[in-house]
Amino acid sequence: MPSDQATWLIAVPNDGDAEGIIQELQHKLKAPSRSVSQLGIPSFKTGTLDSLITLSEELPKQDASFTAVVAKTVDTLRNLLNNDPNKLSQHILVNETSVDDYLADWNWNEGRYGTQRSLRETVDALNKEMTSIDNTMKAKLQNYNLVKGSLTQMQRKKTGNLSVRTLADVVHKEDFVLDSEYLETVLVAVPKTLTKSWNQQYERLTSMIVPRSSKALASDDEYTLFGVVIFRRIHDEFVQKCRENKFIVRDFVYSDEEIERARQELDTADMTEKELWTELLRLSRTNFSEAFQILVHLKVLRLFIESVLRYGLPANYLGIAVKPDPKTAKKTFTTLQQHLSYLHRKSTDKTRGGDTEFVGEYQTLMEQEFFDFVLFEVPWIII
Fold first, then answer.
1. Which are the contacts of 196, defined by CB distance < 8 A and separation ≥ 6?
2. For the ranges 101-105, 277-281, 334-338, which has the lowest average pLDDT?
3. How confident is the model at residue 364 (pLDDT cuts 50, 70, 90)?
4. Contacts with 263 (C-beta within 8 Å, 6 or more apart), sequence order
5. Checking DSSP bridges between strand 223-231 and strand 183-191, what pairing results, if any?
6. For residues 279, 282, 283 and 288, what is the CA-based torsion angle, rounded to 10 degrees?
7. 22, 55, 209, 286: least buried by Cβ within 10 Å?
8. Is-contact 184 229, C-beta < 8 A?
9. How would DSSP label each residue in 112-176?
10. pLDDT tens digits for range 119-146
């Protein structure tokens, strides 16, 4: 049984009363008119049996590839919109309409994929377009992720504890001894449990520490940041002694220019991330619409090819789109099978004599893969 989370695309021989068949199915399935609708399948150039068989073997892989591109585009939209269903519903659109409305009113895009082309040419055109979409999305997404990753790293430096976070927005110019040939201010992150120990020991950690120069500059839940004045010549020894006592010396040199540069880098990264987010959102919305259309066109091509191989010529087939209710999908499918069971006999009759004898030979090989009617699925976009 097909999935109850997909719209079923079905093809049957068109005996001339397409509207009557659709209405009869709507009545049998007790379904709303928009849940059972006609799907226009053009009369393509059939080509040779070998070309049809080759395409029939190739297209499942293309179908899976196309479906994956659509899914990746949806995932990108989900991530950009924080998986917000209301916002997603505004972007998961095909030609500015919902997916369901697009399928219910579907028609082959003759202007874009003229039916005078061979099936191979049409498949190649669809492949080319989908590959272009996939490559563009990959490049744009990679670029955005690089910028976002850089911004996240910068922001993370501002949110950690005082032993790791950037100190540019914590300390001030007046906290430092500047422009001294012999003295410097060193910043030390002291665990709160060791604050008393620091106050008692810092002057004796090494020689040449300015007495009573320790000053608490900031604190958080884990650390207190102290500034202490030492002679430059004992810097390395002081760092080592601090390390031995579990005091963390922060590698920080105050510079107005460096602080301003870091601030500008953060502002630039933030602005660039927002611009790329907007660009990627717009591109993902457009490419979802394009990719979904390409996917449905490929599935209709598959309906046509498999119908020719199953039912033979003339290549005149009626397409039907059925959106099942998940609660009654099994019953709906059973009703479909019963109502269209005559197609088994019809396809069997096609195997006897005439120019269509080859169809039966191929159809019997593939019979176990199909129902009495040709069916492919379009997975739902779950918002």
1. none
2. 334-338
3. very low
4. 168
5. antiparallel
6. 160
7. 286
8. yes
9. TS-TTSBHHHHHHHHHHHHHHHHHHHHHHHHHHHHHHHHHHHHHHHTTS-TTTS--TTT--GGGS
10. 999 999 999 999 999 999 999 999 999 9
Two structure tokens written together for 150: 């850089």
**Per-residue model confidence (pLDDT) at position 361:** 44
Peptide bond into 42 cis (omega under 30): no
Mean pLDDT of 6-28: 84
Half-sphere exposure of 14 (CA within 13 A, CB side): 22
Instruction: Give the distance from CA 161 to its chain's centroid.
Output: 34
Which of 110-124, 177-191, 361-375 is predicted with the least confidence, judged by mean pLDDT? 361-375
Residue 31's CB is within 10 A of a number of other CB atoms, namely 19
Element (H or E) spanning 377, and its range?
strand 374-379
pLDDT of residue 312: 86
Give the Å distances, CA to CA, from 12 to 61, 65, 123, 189.
24, 26, 22, 76
| Whether the predicted model's global pTM rises above the 0.85 cut | no
Q: Running DSSP on this structure, what letter comes out for residue 318?
A: E
**What's the burial of 327, exposed, middle or buried (CB within 10 Å: 0-12/13-18/19+)?**
exposed
351 neighbors 364 (Cβ within 8 angstroms): yes
Q: Which residues contact 140 (CB under 8 A, 6 or more apart)?
A: 276, 279, 280, 283
Tell which wins on pLDDT, 245 or 371. 245
11 contacts 306 by C-beta, under 8 angstroms: yes
Burial of 194 per CB tally in 10 Å (0-12, 13-18, 19+): middle
The dihedral over CA atoms of 139, 142, 146, 148, expressed in degrees to the nearest 10, equals 110
- In tens, the pLDDT along 332-347 reads 888 888 888 777 655 5
Confidence band of 322 (pLDDT split at 50, 70, 90): very high
Angstrom distance (rounded) from CA 208 to CA 115: 89
The pair of structure tokens assigned to 148 is 């976002």
> What pLDDT is stored for residue 138 in this prediction?
97
DSSP 206-257: SSSB-TT--EEEEE-SSEEEEEEEEEGGGHHHHHHHHHHTT-EEE-----HH
Q: Which residue has the tokens 């002694």?
A: 241
